[in-house]
Amino acid sequence: MRALGRGSSARSGPRWVGVLALVGVVLGALVMLVPFVWMFTTSIKPGQALLALPPQLIPQEPTLEPYRRVMNAFPMARVFGNSVLVAVATTAGQLVLASMSGYAFARFRFRGRNVLFAVYLATLMVPFAVTITPLFIIVRQLDWIDTYWALVVPPMFSAFGTFLMRQFFQSVPRELEEAATLDGASTLGTFVRVIVPISGPAFATLGVFAFMASWNAFLWPLLVVRDRDFMTLPLALATLQGLYPGQTEWNLVMAGTVISVVPMIVVFLFAQRWVIEGVTTSGLKG
Q1: For residue 15, is it within any domain?
Q2: Is residue 266 domain-shared with residue 148, that is, in the same domain?
Q3: Which residues, given as ranges, of the chain have pLDDT below 50?
């Protein structure tokens, strides 16, 4: 009877721990959702409801007027298209460059490889504010101001992306490459036909990170874009804020924010399964 009692206690202990962990996760998820709910409800509030006391989470008279005004405030189709073009092109370029450089660091052996990789990785500790001035000078000398080249090319090079892909490629068995070499495949052929098809999780993880960084970029586009035809969504949303306190119509700002957040949510939900697997296999977990 004592052994049975101890066994029942041992089984009930982990069960309660699991229940408490589940409750904690649910509460944490609800807390994380509060800002998004407040953002959406504010975006459908009429102007007079913004200053209501006490604040209303759910407006009594919801309206889509803020969205209509945001669409008319600037050429939304052009701005949204610019953001999509820049984000997709930057992500594609970063995937190509980071995967090839990561594969080189993971598989090729050459003198100074570890030192070069350490120096390259150390650039992650350099603030962007330090490199932005020489980068701007280079872009200006190339006559890329007010062009898509200035928005797309510099963000393609990522030390973090190289590190992530290198960590993933190191977990790939070398026997696959050796078998391809015995079949007569070249190094590039092995990389394209063998390594890339099995690297979906790593590509998805890096793709989501790169897309989000490019989609939310503000400081760099602010410096290299002066023509409204090349304006991206973060720059356009910044024009919705008033110059002086009390002038900002927060329902318009939140409506524009909702429009900008939806594509990132869609991309993440689409690649969620591969992102979780990629973070696990690349060694970036907690």
Answers
A1: yes
A2: yes
A3: 1-2, 4, 243-244, 284-286
